[in-house]
Amino acid sequence: MTFGKAGLALEFALLFVALPLAYRFLPFRFSPLPALWVIAAYCLWVLSRDPNFDWSKLWNARMLGPSLREILVIWIVAALVMTLVVWTRHPAWLFRLVREHPFFWLLIMALYPVLSVYPQGIIYRAFLCHRYQGLFGGMLALMLVSAAAFSFSHIIFRSYWSVGLTLVAGLLFAWRYLVTGSLLASSFEHALYGCYVFTVGLGSLFYHGAGRAAIDR
What is the pTM for the complete model shown? Predict the structure, then answer.
């Protein structure tokens, strides 16, 4: 599906500005996952109609190995910082979900990468970076726009912390995708951070849905 620049700008505004705002100001809360899946399906449909899109980028497993050491080193540093912050500021939160609801925690560890991380990767990295490269130009601009859109989507959780933390993370995930051409590598990195957020005790900043009470307790 081909749009001119005006059409692409309108599509971008609808997907990455209007929809998060609409969800944010709903008078009630519900899981954003169904909407996430619908948008990801739309993005895949659009990409399927674009002969210039390289479908290997949606997985490209061979690029995970060369990136793995760097991904893990950065993540270990970030995980230590998160652990220290929770331990010093809110010690009662530290590993609370693991301690009090281990089966629910295991369920999140198993399903979150598949049901949330990968669809987000399709939308905010594979689709955005290909679809709008004509609007935003080179790698740096695409990385910044991807991170900004990813961060802005987290206004739905009604926390400045959610938005701020995902801006930093979004820069890293977009950079990983753009330099490796591998959504698997980027999504693996995203899953590491997301799973540890739930593990260390910060899950309430990033979750709406069944079992919310277990995370908020």
Answer: 0.94
